[in-house]
């Protein structure tokens, strides 16, 4: 990744979080400090995985895509020419605008790199959560799909559907709903006694949407490109994908169970004792694992070692609390006494049929021990065990879902400053705007410039705070990093004045809208040939939010 490419985050490292944040899929689309999302919700910085992406999209290079959940699985599949998918949905409550184009582009980019691509119209959500009429939904859905096709989505290779017409999605949502409860809807979404039931049902439908690509063909890495406000849906879906699995696979050392933090400590004790070391090195947790062949290590031995061990301290916000885990791990080891301590992979029977559990036992190669509710395997790695569990599950009519991945892009600043809002026409540019209106909106936009031309030349502009520079970085420069570099450098060095910069951006916006709308017109025939109903005969008054 080119370190000289100007970024929408100013190229800064991860900042310290500033305040608590809340993510509302149906609220205002804004985030005060993106660093808060790493702390509050466990979203990972995209920089951590960017190096694994071959020829990354310009939104990745420029820091517009700032976060992810387990995108490394998708990047690995892309690099190895293995199956993967990309899906995102669009709630048809208004005209598609330049903010939506980010998601369109991300789906298309993954499709161009060999992924199975899915674009869905979240019409059930629009009706239940926003109270949209079906006539309005039909009109907006058509506009969204025309822009998606005009930007390059291959409808023959990909799939486009409406939630209300996809019975497979609705059936899957019903099954997933059996693993969800109202208390977590309260915690995740803030639902209460006034929330209509259809709104809750639409949430479960969206979890089914997210997993749908794995239902079509086979379980595979799947990325959901969204704004961070949609992360609650991703988190819930990742949980439900795990809950419906037949088997849970964990690492274990003895008859008792360990949580992740305790497991780190017991692994350190086992490695030290099995290797014959004293084990008083603070770096023990980071050492390579020893051969897991059977040893004479006992739980009591490990307890003695761990009692004298001081876990390394770290200032990282997401670091495990090993000091607290040490106490509970010691209790479990001491209770184990003379029981041998020996690494193994454990399969828990979570939802399996009796036939599937018996098939799992047969499928586990090597030494194993079978118990009433689980199987311990001593000759499999965790990855091998996951593959065995998934294959058995699929062979016995289970889903075998992998947890979906996600990438998150920054919200565009409104042209008038502050939030970009569909209810404030001057703050955004619709993909349906007349090109001359698009030109005028950019010419009237707020900038990051100084009060006078003299101050601009002396102090330079503030490109990192400028909605017009964002237009270049997010849209107008396309794949041309040199243009973004030039605009940024000339701005902050005082060589570029706002009037000329806005004129250039306005001209580019007019050209983009002219080209896009020509392609939309060409896409009309293609859309009409698709197997999707845009003249719904559904009836209803919709919900309220």
Automatic annotation (TrEMBL):
GO MF terms, alphabetically ordered: ATP binding; tryptophan-tRNA ligase activity
Query: Which segments show compositional bias classed as Basic and acidic residues?
Result: 1-17
State the superkingdom: Archaea
List the residue ranges forming a coiled coil, or say none: 502-533
Q: Does the keyword Nucleotide-binding apply?
A: yes
Q: Which GO terms describe its biological process?
A: tryptophanyl-tRNA aminoacylation
- Pull one GO CC term from this UniProt entry: cytoplasm
SUPFAM superfamilies with a match to the protein in the record = Nucleotidylyl transferase
Q: Where is this motif: 'KMSKS' region?
A: 419-423
Catalytic activity from the UniProt record: tRNA(Trp) + L-tryptophan + ATP = L-tryptophyl-tRNA(Trp) + AMP + diphosphate + H(+)
Where is this protein chiefly located?
Answer: cytoplasm
- Give the subcellular location: Cytoplasm
EC main class here is ligase
Q: Which InterPro entries match?
A: aa-tRNA-synth_Ic, Rossmann-like_a/b/a_fold, Trp-tRNA-ligase, Tryptophan-tRNA-ligase_arc
Q: Disordered: where is this region?
A: 1-27
Motif 'HIGH' region in this chain: 92-100
Under which EC number(s) is this enzyme classified?
Answer: 6.1.1.2
Q: What does this protein do?
A: Catalyzes the attachment of tryptophan to tRNA(Trp).
> What family is this protein classified in?
Belongs to the class-I aminoacyl-tRNA synthetase family.
Name of the featured protein: Tryptophan--tRNA ligase
**Coding gene?**
trpS
């Amino acid at each position: 990744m080119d370190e000289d490419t100007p970024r929408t985050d100013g190229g800064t490292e991860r900042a310290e979080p500033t305040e608590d944040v809340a993510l509302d899929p149906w609220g205002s689309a804004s985030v005060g400090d993106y660093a808060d999302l790493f702390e509050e919700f466990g979203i990972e910085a995209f920089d951590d995985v960017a190096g694994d992406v071959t020829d990354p999209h310009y939104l990745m290079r420029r820091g517009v895509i700032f976060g992810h959940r387990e995108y490394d699985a998708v990047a690995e599949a892309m690099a190895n020419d293995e199956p993967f998918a990309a899906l995102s949905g669009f709630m048809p409550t208004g005209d598609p605008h330049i903010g939506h184009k980010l998601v369109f582009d991300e789906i298309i980019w993954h499709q161009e790199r060999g992924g199975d691509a899915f674009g869905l119209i979240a019409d059930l959500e629009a009706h239940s959560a926003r109270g949209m009429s079906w006539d309005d939904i039909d009109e907006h859905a058509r506009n969204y799909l025309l822009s998606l096709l005009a930007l390059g989505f291959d409808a023959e290779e990909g799939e486009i559907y409406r939630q209300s017409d996809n019975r497979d999605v609705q059936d899957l949502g019903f099954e997933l709903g059996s693993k969800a409860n109202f208390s977590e809807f309260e915690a995740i979404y803030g639902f209460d006694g006034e929330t209509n039931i259809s709104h809750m049902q639409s949430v479960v439908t969206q979890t089914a949407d997210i997993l749908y690509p794995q239902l079509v063909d086979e379980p595979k890495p799947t990325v959901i490109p969204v704004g961070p406000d949609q992360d609650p849906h991703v988190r819930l879906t990742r949980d439900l994908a795990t809950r419906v699995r037949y088997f849970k696979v964990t690492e274990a050392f003895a008859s008792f169970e360990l949580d992740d933090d305790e497991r780190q400590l017991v692994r350190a004790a086992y490695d030290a004792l099995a290797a014959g070391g004293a084990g008083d090195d603070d770096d023990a947790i980071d050492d390579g694992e020893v051969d897991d062949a059977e040893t004479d290590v006992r739980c009591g031995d490990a307890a003695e070692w761990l009692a004298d061990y001081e876990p390394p301290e770290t200032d990282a916000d997401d670091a495990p609390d090993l000091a607290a885990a040490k106490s509970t791990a010691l209790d479990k080891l001491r209770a184990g006494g003379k029981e041998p301590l020996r690494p193994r992979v454990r399969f828990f029977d979570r939802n399996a049929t009796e036939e599937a559990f018996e098939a799992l036992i047969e499928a586990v190669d090597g030494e194993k021990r079978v118990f009433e509710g689980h199987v311990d395997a001593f000759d499999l790695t965790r990855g091998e065990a996951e593959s065995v569990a998934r294959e058995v599950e699929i062979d016995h009519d289970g889903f075998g879902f992998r947890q979906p991945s996600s990438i998150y892009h920054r919200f565009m600043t409104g042209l008038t400053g502050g939030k970009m809002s569909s209810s404030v026409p001057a703050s955004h540019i619709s993909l349906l705007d007349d090109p001359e209106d698009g030109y005028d909106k950019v010419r009237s936009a707020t900038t990051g410039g100084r009060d006078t031309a003299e101050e601009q030349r002396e102090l330079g502009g503030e490109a990192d705070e400028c909605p017009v520079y964002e237009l270049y970085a997010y849209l107008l420069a396309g794949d041309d990093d040199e243009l973004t570099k030039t605009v940024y450098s000339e701005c902050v060095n005082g060589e570029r004045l706002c009037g000329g910069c806005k004129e250039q951006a306005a001209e580019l916006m007019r050209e983009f809208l002219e080209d896009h709308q020509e392609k939309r017109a060409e896409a009309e025939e293609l859309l009409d040939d698709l197997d999707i109903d845009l003249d719904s005969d559904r009836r209803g008054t919709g919900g309220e939010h």
